[in-house]
Amino acid sequence: MDRVILVKLSTKGRYGLRAMVDLAVHSGGGHVALYSIAERENISENYLEQVFSTLRKAGLVKSVKGAQGGYTLADKPSNITVGAILRVLEGNLSVVDEDSEASGIGENSIQHCIKVAVWDRMTESLNKLVDSMTLEDLANEYRRMNGKANLMYYI
User: Fold this and answer.
1) Which domain does 139 fall in, by range?
2) Which helix (H) or strand (E) covers residue 84, if one does?
3) What is the CATH number of the domain that holds 53?
4) Taking CA atoms, which of 109, 111, 135, 154 is between 20 and 30 Å from 145?
5) Hey, is 137 helix, strand or coil?
6) What average pLDDT is seen over the chain?
7) What is the reported pLDDT for 62?
8) pLDDT score at 36
9) 34: Cβ–Cβ under 8 A, 6 or more apart, which residues?
């Protein structure tokens, strides 16, 4: 029987990444109201307020109050990585909880060998992957999957 190893992200990380991709797709250089993202992504607006507060404090989004207000990306989508978003919302990305692993293992133990040869290498690969993907990449992939890739309108 095949077994699957999961890297589990919290709801905050999953919803936050979805909302950031939505913002990248729908901003068009302008501000996007949080209720619009909540509606499109079927996520509670109250929950998104908490997520976006964290993202704003980390400098990944900017907010503008008022009738024409909303959120915008703090930088170009090509400069914001999936890794940066997930680390803000999740903390350190690691395959195995290092605190539970660190207690009482000696450098000559099998547990330490597995940690170095497997878990640390998986963590390194995971971090390289999320750091190589940008919001622009995901927005373009979303558009491609939905037949909206690089539509140009001329008037």
Assistant:
1) 11-94+134-145
2) helix 82-90
3) 1.10.10.10
4) 154
5) helix
6) 87
7) 95
8) 95
9) 45, 48, 49, 52, 70, 71
d(CA 94, CA 70): 33
The radius of gyration of the chain's CA atoms, rounded to the nearest angstrom, is 19
Give φ, ψ of 61 to 5 degrees.
-135, 160
How many whole angstroms separate alpha carbon 9 and alpha carbon 115? 21
Answer for the pair 115, 101: CB distance below 8 angstroms, yes or no. yes
Report the predicted TM-score, pTM, of the whole model to 2 decimal places.
0.83
d(CA 143, CA 22): 11
pLDDT digits (tens, 9 = 90+) for 104-136: 667 888 988 988 899 899 999 999 999 999 999
Tens of pLDDT, residues 80-101: 999 999 999 999 888 875 555 5
Residue 16 contacts residue 10 (beta carbons within 8 Å)? no
* Domain annotation covers residue 27: yes
Q: What residues are paired with 72 via a beta bridge?
A: 62
φ, ψ dihedrals at 105, nearest 5°: -105, 135
